[in-house]
Amino acid sequence: MTRAIYRSLLHLHPRDFRRQFAGEMLWIFDEAASSEGAWVLFLDLVISVMRQWLARSGAWKVAVALIGALLQIMGGGLGFVIRPLMLPHRISENTAGPPASVNDLLVVTFVALGVVFGLLFSLVIWVNGLNRKRLTIGKAQKWQIKA
User: Fold this and answer.
1) In this structure, are 34 and 76 located in the same domain?
2) Domain range for residue 119?
3) In this structure, are 77 and 47 located in the same domain?
4) Could you give the CA distance from residue 99 to residue 125 in angstroms, rounded to a whole number?
5) What sections of 76-147 are H helices per DSSP?
6) Residues 38, 1: contact at Cβ < 8 Å?
7) Least C-beta-crowded within 10 Å: which of 10, 15, 94, 100?
C-alpha cells in the first residue's frame, strides 16, 4: 500500500528527473522502507519534489531574494535609510533625535515591507518572463532539430 502511494507521488517530479531517477528511488524505497520507516522516505520525497521544481523553474531566485529582504528588515537596514526621509521633523541637526516611538517604527516597518513586496513582485514577473522565453526557445529548437 505504501509503495503504491510512494510510486504515485513520484509523478510529482518533473518528467526528465522522473525518467532518470524514478526506478532508483523505488528501489531505495523497497530496500529502506522496513529499516528507516516509510514516513522518512515520504518526507524525503516531498523535499525532493520541492527542490526539483524550485531549481528547474528559477523560483529559487525569488526565495533567496525574499530571505535577504526579510533579513534586511529584521536587521533594520532599510529602516535606518527610510526613517530620516519620512520623519525629518523628529530629527534635529544638533542632536541624534528622540528615541523612536512605536508609531515611527510601525511606519518604517510598513514602508519597508511595501518596498520588499514591490521588489518581490517585480522579481517574480521577471523570472516568469525568463522562463517563458526559455520555454519558447526550447520548443523552437526542438522543432528545428526534427525538421
Assistant:
1) no
2) 59-146
3) no
4) 39
5) 77-86, 102-146
6) no
7) 94
Same domain, yes or no: 34 and 66: no
Question: Three cell numbers at 91?
Answer: 530629527
Which three three-digit cell numbers place residue 6? 510512494
Sequential pLDDT tens for the chain (147 residues): 788 888 888 888 888 888 898 899 888 888 887 787 778 888 888 888 888 877 777 767 777 877 877 777 666 655 555 556 555 555 555 555 556 677 777 777 788 788 888 888 888 888 777 777 777 766 666 566 554
Cβ neighbourhood burial of 25 (10 Å; 0-12, 13-18, 19+): buried
Cα–Cα distance measured from residue 43 to residue 56, given in angstroms and rounded to the nearest whole number? 20
CA neighbor of 108 nearest in space, from 132, 133, 91, 95: 91
Q: Could you give the number of structural domains in the chain? A: 2
| Residue whose C-alpha cell reads 520555454 in the numeric block | 135
104 plus 69 within the same structural domain: yes
The answer to whether the predicted template modeling score (pTM) of the entire model surpasses 0.90 is no
